[in-house]
Amino acid sequence: MRVVFLGPPGSGKGTCAKIIGELYSVPVITTGDMLRAAVAKATQLGVTAKGYMDRGELVPDDLVNDLVAERLKQPDAAAGFILDGYPRSPKQAEALDKILKATGNKLDHVLHVTLEDQAIINRLSKRRSCPKCGAIFHLENKPPKAHDKCDVCTTTLVQRGDDKPEVIRRRLEVYRDKTQPLLDFYEKKGKIKTVRGDLDLKELPATLRRVLGHD
Ligand code: AMP
C-alpha cells in the first residue's frame, strides 16, 4: 500500500496517516518529523532547514527530495509506505514519480484531508507537543492531565515555534501557493480521495477504511 497525504498544515494528515500505517503495517514517513530531528541534531541538513522552517517556508526541494529518496530505499518501505507531508511542491511530486517508476511501483491513493482555515488556526495555536516522546495535545480538546506536562513521559510540553499565529498564516499561504496545485496533478491521475479533517477520532478508522475500499 502506497499512499500520499495532501492537506493544509493542521488538517489532521498525521493522525490519518498513523491510522492507515497501522492498518496496513507500513511505515509512516513524515518529512516534518525527519526535518525536526535533523534540526535537533544540528546536522548539516538541520542547520540549513531551520531558517526555512522557522519562517513557515518550504525547505528547498533538492534537500527534501534527497532525504525522502534515501528513506524510501530502506527495507521497511519496500512493501509500501505512507507519505505524510511529502510531496509539497510540483518538483517534489515529479521526484516521487521518478522513484516510483524506477522501482516499478504506483501510488494506490492520494488522500486529501480538508479543514477550514479558522479551524486550522485554532487547532495549531492550541497544539502542544512533547519534545521527548512526540505525544501531541490540544489545550481544549485533548488537554494534558497535569498542566504543561506530557501524560506519557511527564516532560514539559512545548509549542512548536512554527505554530505561532503569524507563522501559521504563512504556512497556509505556502500551502495554497505551492502544494494545492498538486491536487490537480493527482486528480488527473484519478487518485484523489477526500476526507474531512474534523471527524471524531472514534469514527476515523472506519471512515478511512471505507474511503480506501478496505472493507
Ligand atoms: P509539518 O510538520 O509537515 O507542518 O512541516 C513543518 C515544516 O517542515 C514545514 O513548514 C516546512 O518548513 C518543512 N517541511 C516539511 N515537509 C516538507 C517538504 N515536503 N518540503 C519542504 N519543506 C518541508
Can you give me a brief rundown of this structure?
The chain is an alpha/beta fold and 215 residues long.
Identify the strand order in the major beta sheet.
2-3-1-4-7
Number of helices: 9
Low-confidence stretches: none
Which class of secondary structure composition applies to the elements?
Answer: alpha/beta
Cα-to-Cα separation, first versus last residue: 15 Å
What characterizes the major β-sheet? 5 strands, parallel
Radius of gyration: 17 Å
N-to-C SSE series?
Answer: EHEHHHEHEHEEHHEH
Residues in β-strands, percent: 5-15%
Based on Cα principal axes, name the global outline. Answer: globular
- The beta-strand count equals 7
Helical content stands at: 40-55%
Mean pLDDT metric: 94
Which ligands does the model contain, each kind named once? adenosine monophosphate
